[in-house]
Amino acid sequence: MRSIIIAGLLSFSGGTLVAQWNPNTAVNTPVATGTTDDLQAITGPSGRTYVAMFQPTTSGYSPRLQVLNDQGVPRLGTNGMQFNTTTSMGTSTVTWDMRLDAQEHVYIGFTGTGNTDAVVHRLDSTGNHVWSPSGVALGQGYDVKLLPMANGDVMAGWIDANGGGAKLRKIGASGSFAWPAAVTIPSPTGTGQVNIGEMLEYSNGDVLVIYYVRAGFGPSALPYAQRYTAA
User: Fold this and answer.
1) pTM of this prediction?
2) What angle do CA 195, 204, 48 make, to 5 degrees?
3) Longest CA pairwise span in the chain (Å)
């Protein structure tokens, strides 16, 4: 078996994004030629690597996706593809999420910092949109978290930007909401901002949500857990 060494994916503000596939650490593979300020990467069972990134432009950040095959060769051009052209982006980003399911569909949930609109995208392993190119709109929100589920649905969690607390809502495999309305995760302390940390799926489709309640902007808080049925 031939092994592929991946030394890391690094981003430097104002620099070109590169990755390491070659045992010779002096030889790097370009991922994108443009400046990249914020990125996440995930590798699937096929050996492909998916890199989502936010590149600065004169009008705000451009959300882009690059797919590298198992040899580290870019499949979506020298600078990846812009997977969202409708959500208003400012000159900053906030916490966002990227996940992969067993079929290597890529899920990306982020906040448009131009207007705080939170959206979720689903793309296939070659970068094609499975849902609308505009994504699924969650409403105004921050800190989007995602959990792809075994049946093709995806659970989305976020913080309501209008002060409505932490929200949870299931999106069906087709891109329509499987739940008629979002569920609010109540604070067990009665006060403070609930933030979703992680979500995990049970074999029967229930979802475990691990969350915490913070009093301010600091990360220090007690963790809690709640189990939600598939409905």
Assistant:
1) 0.90
2) 70
3) 55
